[in-house]
Amino acid sequence: MTTVLFDVDGTLVDSNDAHAYAWVKAFAEDGIDVSFDSVRRCIGMGGDKLMAQVAGINEESSQGKRISARRREIFKTEFLPHIHPFRDALPLVAALKARGLTVVAASSAKREELDPLLDVAGVRSHFAAATSSDDAEESKPDPDIVQAALRRARADAANAVMIGDTPYDVEAARRAGVSTIAFRCGGWSDADLRGAIAIFDGPWDLLHDLDQIFGKI
Questions:
Q1: Distance CA 54, CA 38 (A)
Q2: Count of domains forming the chain
Q3: Domain end residue (candidates: 26, 52, 82)
Q4: Do the beta carbons of residue 203 and residue 187 sit within 8 Å?
Q5: Which of 150, 174, 181, 188 falls between 20 and 30 A from 4, CA-CA?
Q6: Same domain for 139 and 78?
């Protein structure tokens, strides 16, 4: 094992609900009524796929671009200032780096959102690189973001593990040939996260069993 790829939203920072509320509000301002639950189930996939899934809107259309831009503004101004890291997010990342592992972000977030979220978690200086949806043609659950992160880390899939919180992380990693450790703190059930090699409550839980789990990989 040489490399750990981290999702960020719902994995290191408690932001999944905030993203969902920002989408719901952006849709509503454009006259589209979508339920919070339907949006929440799509958090973790790329915004392009979310818009198509919940509202049948192409992100590249004029309406899609308008809603997407408004969602980013809502999230940045109304929600980002109130987001907090999960307990032991920084100690977990630091412990992995201290073991000599290369740590890389592999997030569906846009670059302009990813950097502030890494700052919220306090982990940006520990990451060797960070890949966002801007670095991939297709967003999660397609494997492009995971593959881009592997290239940035100069790592083989067989020598890497993905840590994420959604079924889209598990699927994207699987399609890239990477094993996944999943966290429940993003709001998904164990059944949703099937395919992960191990499931933990969150960063604090994995940190507690770090020797055991990394001895198995």
A1: 7
A2: 2
A3: 82
A4: no
A5: 188
A6: no
Helices and strands in the chain: count of H runs, count of E runs: 10, 6
Query: Does 101 lie in the same domain as 50?
Result: no
Tokens in use for 76?
């940045």
Regarding whether 158 and 129 lie in a shared domain, the answer is: yes
Residue-wise pLDDT for 30-77, tens only, equals: 999 999 999 999 999 999 999 999 999 999 999 999 999 999 999 999
Residues 27 and 43 in one domain: yes
Rounded alpha-carbon distances, angstroms, from residue 168 to 72, 202, 215? 21, 17, 26
Same domain, 146 and 203: yes
Domain extent at residue 66:
16-82
Instruction: Determine how β-strand 179-183 pairs with β-strand 198-200.
Output: parallel
Nearest to 141 by CA among 169, 113, 106, 166: 169
Residue 75 DSSP class: I
* Per-residue tokens: 186: 């993003």
* Cβ atoms 202, 184 nearer than 8 A: yes
Cα(215)–Cα(139) distance, integer angstroms: 31
Give the C-alpha distances (Å, rounded to integers) separating 102 from 6, 50, 69, 158, 160.
11, 30, 33, 14, 9
CB-neighbour burial class of residue 77 (10 A; exposed 0-12, middle 13-18, buried 19+): exposed
Q: Tens digits of per-residue pLDDT, 124-158?
A: 999 999 998 889 889 999 999 999 999 999 999 99
Q: How far is CA 42 from the centre of its chain?
A: 12
Q: Which residues pair with 6 in a beta bridge?
A: 105, 163
